[in-house]
TrEMBL record:
Belongs to the CobB/CobQ family. GatD subfamily. Substrate binds at R128. This is Lipid II isoglutaminyl synthase (glutamine-hydrolyzing) subunit GatD. Keywords: Cell shape, Cell wall biogenesis/degradation, Glutamine amidotransferase, Hydrolase, Ligase, Peptidoglycan synthesis, Transferase. It catalyses: beta-D-GlcNAc-(1->4)-Mur2Ac(oyl-L-Ala-gamma-D-Glu-L-Lys-D-Ala-D-Ala)-di-trans,octa-cis-undecaprenyl diphosphate + L-glutamine + ATP + H2O = beta-D-GlcNAc-(1->4)-Mur2Ac(oyl-L-Ala-D-isoglutaminyl-L-Lys-D-Ala-D-Ala)-di-trans,octa-cis-undecaprenyl diphosphate + L-glutamate + ADP + phosphate + H(+); L-glutamine + H2O = L-glutamate + NH4(+). The active site is at C94, H195. Forms a heterodimer with MurT. SUPFAM superfamilies: Class I glutamine amidotransferase-like. The lipid II isoglutaminyl synthase complex catalyzes the formation of alpha-D-isoglutamine in the cell wall lipid II stem peptide. The GatD subunit catalyzes the hydrolysis of glutamine to glutamate and ammonia. The resulting ammonia molecule is channeled to the active site of MurT. Residues 6-202 form the CobB/CobQ-like glutamine amidotransferase domain. It comes from Syntrophomonas zehnderi OL-4.
Amino acid sequence: MESLVIAYMYPNLMNLYGDRGNMVCLEKRIGWYGHQCEVRTVNHNDRLDFQRIDMLFMGGGSDREQGLVYNDLLVKADKLMQEIEDGLPALFVCGAYQLLGTSYQSHEGTVLNGLGFFDLHTLGQKERLIGNILLESELEGELKTVVGFENHGGRTYFDDEQLKPFGTVVKGYGNNGEDGREGIRYKNLIGTYLHGPLLPKNPHVADFLIKAMAQRRGITLSEPLDDTIENFAHQQVKNRILAGK
Ligand code: GLN
């Protein structure tokens, strides 16, 4: 039985609105697929051995927390981008997603340079974009809905029209409440504003990441899981969002 290793970045600082639940979801699903999952926390000054990880996860955080992790993340950035280019599965939520761009300006005007992985920038406003959100998102050639919760002051804008969003907004705000885009998709990386946590109510997104991990490690997964409960929960949230609740 192989063990898949997930690097959980700065869990004590970057973890808002249930983001840690994404780790619980992946651990459970990988176990149901017949393999072990090890979630390895990575904090300030911890060495990140990319040879020993199969996925990287980083949750959301307030402007203050983003500032606290940025310099440490910068030290790890070059190797991280090489691994992402090489297909490392990665999930960056909200404040973590914002740091992947060229800059993040808080609503008070403080500017953080981003990691510069993608040509996008974020401008913070005092009025926050808050609420349940419904997307349409294409993963593995299939267009499916994705549900979640968003709470961010930052408005993220693509400065490269070639960038691909994680999804398009059906109900809610998304990247900036204007252009209908939500998040970013690049190879096996997903950046998104969706908290909730994202994965338990969107099992196909969890499986996209798990399949990418398994494929890179050359291991096979058992039969598809029975997601009756997860899909019921997804539909319940989707119906509530469509009804404007
Ligand atoms: N501090 C950032 C913002 O307000 C990110 C918030 C978050 O991670 N939920 O936009």
